[in-house]
Amino acid sequence: MEKRAEREREREHGGESQSMKGRPAGDGAHADAQCSAPAAGSPVQKEEDEQTPEFSAKIWAAQPPSVEPWDACILKVDASRPDEILPQEDALDNLVEHPVPVRPVLDASTNVIINMYLTKQERKKLRRRKRQEKEREKQDKIRMGTAFSARVAAERKERERPLLRS
């Protein structure tokens, strides 16, 4: 009974009792006392629950800092309230730093054309595409009535010839 009371006192105070000094931590005789938690309704458990908030308050900082050290240069301190740091409006307005515009080496008015040498196949494809494009434009004009087909043009010429002879 005395050993149990001594162990409880040891747990409360966090130190070693006289009987535990010099013994290894994994001693078989006291292993159950070291590893087991106090019962839910025991006075030791109640004391531990009451001490937990105080213990955590001592370990952890009360509040995180209001300003990080690297942000201190952009913030100003109010003389009447040194604990509160106010942001400088002008320093925070332009958050993105834009690079200074650099003038291009070449003038924009002069168009520089880089010569590209095409293979024989590529030249053929380009010629074919250009011809097809011209033909499509011609057909579109005929459909809209702004241009005449070769047949219509030939017929008109035939009609105009007799008029010119007379």
UniProtKB/TrEMBL annotation:
GO terms for biological process: mRNA splicing, via spliceosome. It comes from the Eukaryota. InterPro entries: Pre-mRNA_splic_Prp3_dom (IPR013881), Prp3 (IPR027104). Residues 1-15, 132-143, 153-166 have a biased composition (Basic and acidic residues). Residues 3-146 form the Pre-mRNA-splicing factor domain. Residues 1-63, 123-166 are annotated as: Disordered. GO terms for cellular component: U4/U6 x U5 tri-snRNP complex. PANTHER family: U4/U6-ASSOCIATED RNA SPLICING FACTOR-RELATED (PTHR14212), U4_U6 SMALL NUCLEAR RIBONUCLEOPROTEIN PRP3 (PTHR14212:SF0). This is Pre-mRNA processing factor 3 (PRP3). The lineage of its organism: Eukaryota, Sar, Alveolata, Apicomplexa, Conoidasida.
